[in-house]
Structure prediction request, 169 residues.
Amino acid sequence: AFVRALQATPLPPGQGPVGSRGVPLAERDAATRAAIRACAELGFLNEGAALAVWEDALNAAPHAGPPAWLHADLKPGNLLSGGGRLSAVIDWGGLTLGDPAVDLQPAWNLLGPVGRAAFREALGVEDAAWARGRGWALSVSVIALPYYRDSNPGLAGVCRDTLRALLPG
Prediction:
């Protein structure tokens, strides 16, 4: 319900904010491929499997509608809950306009298979957006994991968990 409400918020007149996660996924191609290679060299993932997910995301049909408001950093540490329900969303530093697929990342960085399917169904996500959402989750995780592996083990753990959810084996 939160993602749906955020993305339904009226857009500002004229040009709104466009941050690094408000750009087309293809603009992250070089950085993501380099990060996949680095993560494979560190033993964090299977390079071929990661590249297959990335290629699938890049080959998915682009978002055809208008941009939507995005939190752009919906990860476990930014989603607070109470009584088994979402109670707050924090860290709005990445607020931007862009492809709604960016905010599908909790499907892999927070939810298990059953929750993932329910999340997708609740949002009515079509295949191309789902593939782009997987690409965003992969890109964010492979770029962050080597950077945070020593300085922020908790966030690095979220990245590892996300990659396990995204990649077979």
Summary: The chain is about 50% helix and 10% strand. Strands lie at 68-70, 79-82, 85-89, 96-98. The first helix runs from residue 2 to 8. Helices lie at 2-8, 29-41, 47-59, 106-109, 113-123, 127-148, 153-166.
